[in-house]
Structure formats: structure tokens, C-alpha cells
Design brief:
- The protein has helices spanning 3-10, 16-23, 27-39, 77-84, 110-121, and strands at residues 60-68, 89-94, 101-107, 127-134, 140-141, 144-145.
- By secondary structure, it is an alpha+beta fold.
- It has two domains: 3-39; 57-137, 2-Layer Sandwich (Alpha-Beta Plaits), CATH 3.30.70.920.
- The strands form two sheets. The protein has a four-stranded antiparallel β-sheet with strand order 2-3-1-4. A two-stranded antiparallel ribbon has the order 5-6.
Length: 160
Amino acid sequence: MNPVLKLLLEGGNLNTAQMAQVLNLSEADVNRQLDDLKKQRVLLGWSPVLNLSHEEAGTVRAVIEVRITPERGGGFNRLAERISRFDEVESCYLMSGGYDLLVFVEGASLQRVAAFVSEKLSTVEGVLSTATHFMLRSYKEQRFLLEGKTGDAERLKVTP
């Protein structure tokens, strides 16, 4: 794995000067590698990890299991790309198992997410069924614990 990319994943809050120091490179080299990663579409953007439970005007998030009919010659790709283009969709994954797509959705209210599912997602030709699960609380986001102790984590107890 590219060392700059690895450092981004492990120490995402470092600036380019700090990354250069850790990697024993010049800051210009780090910037050049970051530009290359962007051109190759490996690095698509920066996203902060937020604990939205502290915000009064939080958003409603849901996970939707979607069963779709694969198309001849294209499989699941065309439908997955079409569903991914909706503004409400945060992420969309092709899955194995009991459903085909796992879709993460965000909306201003429970009613808005429900309206998205009933009026937009479920009406897409090729969508067979949906199962919506509303997220009630987040405990960990992108490897960051959101609540609880912030220092050394308590070791999990192991029993024989």
C-alpha cells in the first residue's frame, strides 16, 4: 500500500508537513503523491468523523436492504449506480446474502427518509423489495469511539 495512503488511514489528522516528517519525505513529495492519488481516483475526498448526537438539529440515518433484479449484460451495476445518484444516499454497497444492495441514507426527519424509500427508491424499476432499519444511536464511526472513555480502552474480559 502507498505509504502516504496508509498514513492517511492511520493518522488522518496529520497535516502534510507532519506526514512528510513521519515518512522522511519532503512536503512537496507528499503533496505530489496526494495529487497522484487524487488523479488515480484512489483519494476521492476528505470526510470528518462527526458525533452528531451532540447536535440539536441532528439528522436521521437509516440502513436499507434492497433486493433488485440483475440485468442481462450489466448485472447489478446500472441499478446500483442509479440508486447511488440520489442525494439522500450516503453509501451504497453490493452485498452477498439475503439482499443485493446495502444503502445508507440520511434525511432531515424520519418522515423524509420514509418518503425517500416509498416514493423514490421502491419505485425504481428493478427494485423488488426494501427493508429499512433506522439508526438509533452510533457507538463507533470509522474507527472512532463516540462515547465513553477517551483514554486507554478497557480490555475486554476473556473467559475460558
